[in-house]
Known about the structure:
The protein is of the alpha+beta class. It folds into two domains: about 10-40; about 45-140, no CATH class. It is built from five helices and three strands, in the order ααβαααββ. A three-stranded antiparallel β-sheet has the order 1-3-2, with helices on one face.
Amino acid sequence: MNTDKVFFRDLLKTINTYKTRIALICVMSVAFCFQLTFWIEKQFTSTFEINVYSKYFQNPLISGVIPDVYNIPEMRFAIDSMVKEAISDEFIDILGRKYNMSSGTKDEREAARERQMIRDRFSYFSTGGQSYQISFSHSD
Length: 140
């Protein structure tokens, strides 16, 4: 088995020979990557998780008398409706004004369309019995 040896001084000699080409390739690569930051659409996502404990749904007057009974599907439905209710038109209008996502038109049909477009950017799903993950995505 015949193996060729590579010496470090030969490597330096080769790099020295092609140094202008290597520098030009590096500069062009950096310029191309910098230009991509303007071409590619920026996507922003904010995510959080909320936990709603079952004691929230329990009546405080009878909590000491009746033992805790957990109806998971009913509790999940209640939490789901609470999350949907929290994303109200007023909340969406505040988000639209604060982050310039809506045009602020007075036309009710146009405002309803903008609200629906903002509402569609929300995604939420159950991550367990009491937890929900809520995300909002926006792009420039």
